[in-house]
Amino acid sequence: MTSVMGNHAEELPSLPLPDEQRCPFAPPPEYERLRADHPVIRVTCPTGVRAWLVSRYADVREVLGDPRRFSNRPGTAAHILLGFSGAEPVGEGEFPRMDGGEHLRFRRHMAPEMSNMKRIGQLRPLVQAIVDQRLDAVAAVEPPVDFYAQFARPVTTAVIAELLGVPEGDRGLFQKAAEALFTGALTAAEVGEAMRPLFEYLYATVMTRRANPGEDVISRMIVRSDGTERPFTDAELVRMSAAMLLAGYDTTASMISHGLLALLEHPQELDRLRADPGLAATAAEELVRYLGVGGGLLREVTEDTEIAGQPVKVGDYVVVAIQSANRDSALHPDGDHLDVSRPAGAHLGFGHGPHQCVGQQLARLELTTVLATVARRIPSLRLAVPFDDIRFKVDTAVLGPVALPVTWDKVLPAAEGGA
Amino acid sequence: MRIDIHAERCIGSGVCALIAPELFDQRDDDGVVVLLDPDPAPEQQENAYEAATRCPASVIEIHEEG
Questions:
Q1: Fewest beta carbons within 10 Å, which of A280, A340, A404, B21?
Q2: Separation between Cα atoms, residue A183 and residue A161, nearest integer Å
């Protein structure tokens, strides 16, 4: 393939992209050879970006863990999504593209809401209630049911919308925006157009709650901001709220449906989880390792340096292959094996470094609650169609099945005080 | 074993408090790590190593001596 960018006709291999129709749960098979023979290699990415592709665990971890040499400035997905234009100036509050202290200011403002473990503990009953209510609703329908559309997405939507205080009638706004953001088919201008109604809505929400704060995350961020050295502007508060809403629902919903599908295709592992729902926490972590972040993450080199002995120059792009790193035998000798009791380990499914997923603790809570509850309440859960009929999403940064048609004999009632 | 903290790098991910709540807490206003026990008991040392390895911002430093 010839690159569409650059001024000399250098022939480069293409970035190997997930093809889940061929490998439903694994990275492209090329990565095994790349890790062995070409751990750092020049590739052309779908958006025309040329980059160094890094595929070994230790090297991926080194790049993500050293933001001084490897900057987030281009945005983490500009190599696969046209809508993420890495060349645009960083917008007010666009913290995913900031480095150092600027970025830290945003992370530490969101942390009390999303990643303080005491807060996560307080949210556990809310998440359990949402999961149980949704299973009750699903149980009232005659199966087969698409578990992605009817269970996973409603659960993750309800959790993040409850947290931010977005009423049910307004939730379509952020779902539409998220769909536009994560598809590779739209240009930056089109994505901007799709985001505008959400930003306008959140701006009005910030105004209202500034005047009359409640108990929701947006109000709490507004109130806490006033006590900081450099209070956050309305635009910055809108960006943080939008990031939580957009990143908070389809990534986790897709991990739920993709993860359940993986378990249904590994019946021994699913049986272990059914026999002991206490394995849900390690199972959730293992599914994130096993399935996480298909297209890799983008960074920009800030000074002439080396990755695994390969010289790279300031301004070069680097793509780290998360899925490949998580299967590297340097992390786990049996990394291609799905094991619901595997101790968590230092996998990179939520990323690594200062930009590691800001919603990871909420995602862990949701995944763990779903796995324990589904294993206990629907022991007869099974696919309603042959596995070969399952279709996978393409042209997106959020992978997983398009639909998850399942059936069952019986949905058991919720336990007293939650499953 | 002695644990040192480089809190200036902390992003408040909560990974340490998830793995070793006996050793690490977080501040309420910004999620930044609070070291509860710089000199962990032998049965906590494995958790301390795991927290140091998994901390996304390399905040936790472990010294063998002392």
A1: B21
A2: 22
**CA–CA distance, A235 with A241 (Å, rounded to integer):** 10
Contact of A373 with A132, CB cutoff 8 Å: yes
Asked if the peptide bond before residue A144 counts as cis, ω within 30 degrees of 0, the response is yes
The tens digit of pLDDT for each residue in A120-176 reads 999 999 999 999 999 999 999 999 999 999 999 999 999 999 999 999 999 988 888
Q: Report the alpha-carbon distance of residue B24 to residue A269 in Å, rounded.
A: 32
Place of tokens 């025309």: A48
Q: How many domains does chain B have?
A: 1
SS3 of A379, please? coil
What is the residue extent of each domain of chain A? Answer: 30-407
- CATH pick for A30-407 out of 1.10.630.10, 3.40.50.620, 3.40.50.920, 3.10.105.10: 1.10.630.10
Is B11 in the A-facing interface, judged by CB distances under 8 Å?
Answer: yes
Shortest CA gap B59–chain A (Å): 10
How many CA atoms, within 13 angstroms, populate the side-chain half-sphere of residue A191?
A: 18
- Rounded to two decimals, the ipTM of the complex is 0.96
Q: How far apart are CA A50 and CA A74, in angstroms?
A: 13
Q: How many CB atoms lie within 10 A of CB A142?
A: 6
Find chain B residues with C-beta within 8 A of A120's C-beta: 14
Between CA A341 and CA A200 the distance in angstroms is: 45
Q: Which of B15, B19, B24, B36 to mutate to test the interface with A (most CBs of A within 10 A)?
A: B15
CB atoms under 10 Å from CB of A199, counted, come to: 16
- Mean pLDDT calculated for residue range B32-38: 98
Distance from CA of A333 to the nearest CA of B (A): 18
Q: Nearest residue of B to residue A343 by CA position?
A: B50
Question: Which CATH number covers residue B54?
Answer: 3.30.70.20
Q: What is d(CA A395, CA A17) in angstroms, rounded to the nearest whole number?
A: 10
Lowest mean pLDDT among A118-122, A227-231, A365-369: A227-231
